[in-house]
Design goal:
single chain, about 500 residues, 20 helices, mainly alpha, 2 strands
Length: about 500
């Protein structure tokens, strides 16, 4: 193709942010800048759907590759997509316009800046999933810290500055070692081109150290236990749109990094550290589920549930089975939809009551029946009920895990039971029971734009629960190729040592 479609996807939101900077807008009449942001994000979503339409899912090679000289003799600007990355790009372009629609009059302070930050986030997140050069990936990966830091620090709650700095320092410090590792890889191989590195391979005697360097960054961003403590604070203080982007997209960048780099570049080290991943994943699944049961803040509960769900993701990735990795990718897409919807549902009642304490609610089914129905759909999706996308992901992950380690899979299965416990208990306390709080009687059911947003998320949650083929067919060949390369490298290594 002559059209640089991936660069267009990356740059279009940034161009939109540039235009919004010059749009005249004030606190009372803010629609003009919002319309520009919405138009740009919708155009990008349609462009990503076109990319999916013309994508050939029968080949494992990277497609629509763009390779241009950037830093002469050192780094090229290289982007491309395969069956794994394209779904995350579509998820990003789908969630962003919903975030923009959700921005209402409660965000009056520097609204234009808020919309600019969201669009810049979209540019950087898409760049992560397109990058085929380690340094380009690192720049996009870390660049996303800046707009999210501003979103939390400027438009967040009372403890926004503390939460913003905690988020920034955790994720930045976790990535310093990754930068050192990238520089080391360049000096060892003479390139940071991902495709070339797949062919050349990394010297096995350095793989463990390099794997750990990348792991420190991905573990914080996932987030894995015990470096997960920044996430609940960030979610609680972030505005609704910020929480949605954080849960739906940012956490997935680390999961994608595990698949693309930890498995792809360091297969021998990945095989060596599988027990560590299993242990940390199980602790995340069980421990954070128990912590979620104790929460009295709705956002904190959903934040801890995200840690547990991402524990399933890391578990599935390192089973190195077709079902496990496909399940992890499917789970990340599903969690992107469901977690975004749950945070939006919290935002709906927070805008009306200005509290997230579960004890302040109860019995709202009688005054907000539309809200209760949609919240139930997403609650069941988070539990992984058959008929929702959450079931497909968890089922495939557990299938892959049972193949590799029966005990680990059995313990992980307890997380499904615990998820049902904390999510159904949350739903019962908020939706059912007696309407004791008189202030709740003033609440009105969903507005038109809220219905649009939530049904936009509910439809794919149900659709992919019954018909997962579009997603599975997209990723199948790329995952098979990844596993084949991984197993080949491991067999060669074991053969040499025997």
């Amino acid at each position: 193709m002559n059209i640089p479609i991936l660069s267009s996807l990356i740059l279009l939101p940034a161009i939109g942010a540039f235009f919004i900077f010059f749009v005249k807008s004030n606190n009372k009449k803010y629609q003009s800048s919002k319309y520009v942001a919405l138009f740009i994000s919708l155009a990008n979503f349609l462009l990503s759907l076109y990319l999916w339409f013309i994508f050939d899912n029968t080949v494992s090679e990277f497609q629509f590759v763009e390779n241009r000289k950037w830093i002469a003799g050192f780094v090229n600007y290289k982007v491309g997509v395969d069956g794994i990355s394209i779904l995350f790009i579509i998820l990003t372009t789908f969630i962003t316009p919903l975030c923009i629609i959700s921005v209402n009059s409660t965000i009056e302070n520097r609204l234009k800046d808020f919309l600019i930050a969201i669009l810049l986030m979209e540019t950087l997140m898409i760049g992560v999933f397109c990058s085929l050069d380690l340094l380009v990936f690192y720049l996009f990966f870390e660049g996303g810290l800046i707009p999210m830091f501003l979103i939390i620090g400027i438009w967040g709650g009372e403890r926004r500055v503390y939460s913003a700095f905690k988020f920034f320092l955790y994720t930045l410090l976790g990535s310093v070692l990754m930068l050192v590792a990238i520089i080391s890889i360049y000096w060892m191989t003479g390139t940071t081109d991902v495709e070339k590195l797949y062919v050349i391979g990394i010297d096995t005697k350095y793989q463990n150290l390099l794997w750990l360097a990348f792991f420190t960054s991905f573990a914080v961003k996932t987030p894995m236990w015990p470096v997960h403590t920044w996430l609940p604070d960030a979610h609680v203080e972030a505005p609704t749109a910020g929480s949605v982007l954080l849960a739906a997209i940012l956490l997935k960048m680390a999961g994608y990094g595990f698949i693309r780099f930890s498995l792809g570049l360091f297969p021998i080290a990945s095989e060596y550290f599988i027990p560590l991943i299993y242990f940390l994943s199980l602790v995340a699944i069980i421990y954070t589920s128990l912590v979620a049961l104790m929460q009295d803040d709705m956002k904190k509960l959903i934040a801890y549930s995200s840690v547990a769900h991402m524990g399933f993701v890391t578990l599935g990735i390192f089973t190195m089975t077709q079902q496990g990795i496909e399940g992890s990718i499917f789970q990340m897409i599903s969690h992107g939809l469901v977690s975004a919807a749950l945070f939006l549902c919290v935002g709906v009642i927070y805008d009306r009551m200005h509290t997230r304490l579960i004890s302040q609610y109860g019995g709202i089914v009688s005054i907000m029946p539309k809200y209760a129905i949609l919240l139930m759909i997403f609650t069941l999706g988070a539990i992984g009920l058959p008929g929702t996308s959450g079931f497909i992901g968890e089922f495939l992950i557990l299938m892959g895990t049972f193949k590799k380690n029966f005990l680990v899979a059995t313990i992980a299965s307890l997380g499904v039971i615990l998820a049902a416990a904390y999510m159904l208990w949350l739903y019962k306390r908020v939706v059912f029971g007696k309407l004791i709080n008189d202030n709740l009687k003033k609440m009105v059911d969903l507005k038109k734009y809220e219905i649009l947003i939530l049904w936009s998320l509910a439809i794919p949650t149900i659709l992919f629960g019954f018909y997962p083929e579009p997603l599975i067919n997209t990723i199948e060949v790329s995952v098979s190729n990844l596993i084949e390369m991984y197993n080949l490298n491991v067999e060669i290594y074991l053969g040499k040592n025997n």
